Amino acid sequence: MSLLQFFLDIGLGLVLGCLGGLFGIGGGLIGIPLLGLWFGLDQHLAQGTALVMVIPNVLLALWRYHQHRRIDLRQALTMAGTGFCAAWLGAQAANLLDAEHMRLAFCGFLLVLALWNGLRLFLRSAPGGELSRPWPWLVPLGVGSGVLGGLFGVGGAVLATPLLTTLLGASQVVAQGLSLALAAPSAAVSLATYALHGRVDWALGIPLAVGGLLGIGRGVRMAHALPERALGLSFCGFLVLCTLLLLLD
């Protein structure tokens, strides 16, 4: 790798980090299709490499969200614990599936999420706040999000956020903070699984992670500055963009 390429990869990581902080997803969601489109990585290798960036991004973003608006420790630990166990199952399944089928399934998954998020923004009459249900409701949510996060290499946060807003009445910002608590351990176990199967490009993933750490704080500040509906609609558009990038790959 040339020095120029190294710094270009850091720059890409910075942009992905900003987006990850803005939407509470660590940057892997858009990083995966970009790695396939620009670097020619197959779906498995793109998911494993993106996780190298996602883990430090998620940890820093989680801290930043906590600084802006305190995250409930019991809720966060519930999400993290259930997501960790479930992500291992999802990651194991991912390594047994065909890469092309994985890519198409991922596209469908993102489109469903975009539609779901768009509908709940217009169907919900009042802005959300804290969770409207007690913490045990987070157990099945953590399991489902963890499995799909391990399967698609996105840490589960992208699924947990709309579930928390739609089913448990959380605001977009509260949901994104709790989703990051789920994403941290589930992304770690997913990365370990992908690495054991030789599906991680460390030389590319490390500079992306460095850039992501430089950009994540900017994204978190933007998330807390935007109005609730504007942030939600931006999240929907972001999901559609990621789907289009995957289909172009």
From TrEMBL:
Keywords: Cell membrane, Membrane, Transmembrane, Transmembrane helix. It holds the Pfam family TauE. GO terms for cellular component: plasma membrane. The chain crosses the membrane at residues 12-39, 45-65, 77-97, 103-123, 135-161, 173-196, 203-224, 230-248. It is found in: Cell membrane; Membrane. It is a multi-pass membrane protein. Coiled coil: none annotated. InterPro entries: TM_pro_TauE-like (IPR002781), TSUP/Inactive_protease-like (IPR051598). Belongs to the 4-toluene sulfonate uptake permease (TSUP) (TC 2.A.102) family. This is Probable membrane transporter protein. The lineage of its organism: Bacteria, Pseudomonadati, Pseudomonadota, Gammaproteobacteria, Pseudomonadales.
